[in-house]
Amino acid sequence: MSAGLTVRRYWHSMLxxxxxxxxxxxxxxxxxxxxxxxxxxxxxxxxxxxxQPCSPAVSEPSTSPGAAQCSSLCPRQxxxxxxxxxxxxxxxxxxxxxxPSPAPCDACAGAxxxxxxxxxxxxxxxxxxxxxxxxxxxQEVVEETTGRRTLSATxxxxxxxxxxxxxxxxxxxxxxxxxxxxxxxxxxxxxxxQRDELQEQVEDLARLLQVEKETQAQQxxxxxxxxxxxxxxxxxxxxxxxxxxxxxxxxxxLREEQICVLKEALAAKQAALQELEATKKSLLEDLRTxxxxxxxxxxxxxxxxxxxxxxxxxxQELSAVTTQLEKEKAKVESMLRHKESLQAKQSAxxxxxxxxxxxxxxxxASLGEAEGDRARLAEQLEESREQREQSGHQxxxxxxxxxxxxxxxxxxxxxxxxxxxxVSRLEEQAQELKEREKLLVFFPELHVPVETQFxxxxxxxxxxxxxxxxxxxxxxxxxxxxxxxxxxxAKVKAAARQGVLQASKQPRQRGRRGGTxxxxxxxxxxxxxxxxxxxxxxxxxxxxxxxxxxxSPGPAAGSRAPRERQRCQRSAxxxxxxxxRPPQIDARGNQAELKR
Length: 596
Fold this sequence. Notes:
Blueprint lengths: L2 H32 L7 H10 L12 H10 L1 H6 L25 H23 L5 H12 L7 H126 L1 H163 L17 H39 L11 H12 L1 H5 L1 H8 L2 E4 L2 E4 L12 H10 L1 H4 L21
Antiparallel strand pairs: 1-2
Helix pairs in contact: 1-3, 1-5, 1-7, 3-7, 5-7, 6-7, 7-8, 8-9
InterPro entries: CCDC157
Protein name: Coiled-coil domain containing 157
């Protein structure tokens, strides 16, 4: 159901309710003039006080005076039916025995009949608009208990209170509908404005299209007229050229005939000249005639040249005329193309106008659908609010969990990135160590016995470069060892200066002092070779033979180097054992000592 129809029905029901209320007021005034007011009995007052809790605590001021007037109009009935009054419609009906009541007056019956009609109208409005009605439940309870009889004062009060509740609900529903209808009205006004604007645009486009059509028709007429003029001129020029061409053909034919005749005459005259030359006498006589004939031939040749020049000039004029005709043809073709483009533009404008009409119809249909959707969305809005609140609580909990998980994820990503960096750094170090190990294995020291053979790549320059790299590594290792030895020697000298290493003053150790002095004098030269020799005399196991990895250390160890080499060669079978591991190289490039 649309909002406009709902509002119209509600407005008609409210007008009918107002008419019933005015009728009820007039009937009450008539009853007040006809029947004297009577005070209710104390017993009826007590019963009314007992039945007072059944009425709602708050009622509208517009209906409470009517209920009070009705109770004042029928005091007898209120007193008689006090014990049989009806409780609240939501709580049920009490099972009290109603005392027999006297016959009610006509005014009360008419007022209650009108009240019943108003209540039925209100309940029908509530049912039609899906509004919960308290008055309908109260009517059912009253019909079950009393039927169609007159009501007591308390029942009328309860009736009025329930009716006021329904009226307040209807007014709230009306306000809600008005809140929904007002934006729809504003949207409808905006859509009307847009429709007016679109109509104005369509009218403008129609005017422009009409102007364009008129201009196109005028241009078409002008083009047709100019085309007709050009066609006439073209036909006249073609006819004139055809005539000139025929004249030229005839003149050329005549000239050719004359030339042929002249050629024949010339041939005859040449024959005559030959005959005249044969005879000198006749030549003298015919000389004059021949000179005349020669002059005539020259004149004819000049005429022939003139005719050829005229023919060439006529050919040039003909080519110029043909080029002009081609230009005129191009102009005509361009005019035709322009005409076709104007027709295409006109068809495109007509298509745009049709599309605008279709869009206007679609907008009108979508506006009707939007009105229906608004009514449905208003019903779905309340359900979506409750669902949104529930989902909001769930969303907060999920957001907290998500924050914690994101923090854990960030920490894990940081740790993973650190581990990856460490792994990459270690892989680079391992690769460098492998390369250094390969260099030390493939290119050992050069000063080795001749019988020891090494593996080579076959390229002398490459082998020399790699040998140079291996020697550089060995030089670096030896320099590090020398630096460590210098540091240790400096520490020893410092300790000797401080008196930490003073010799004993006993007589039996005096004989040893000279030997210790000699050993200290030989110190760096004699003792520095020992740790270096251990690193230099290491052998690498490569393909079933041992390869030396370091150069011989200094001149101080020169005497012991051959003996150390022989000892290492004797220990080669131990290195070749299958359960032994090949020598390893640490991060500084030094080879570890062989494990026996």
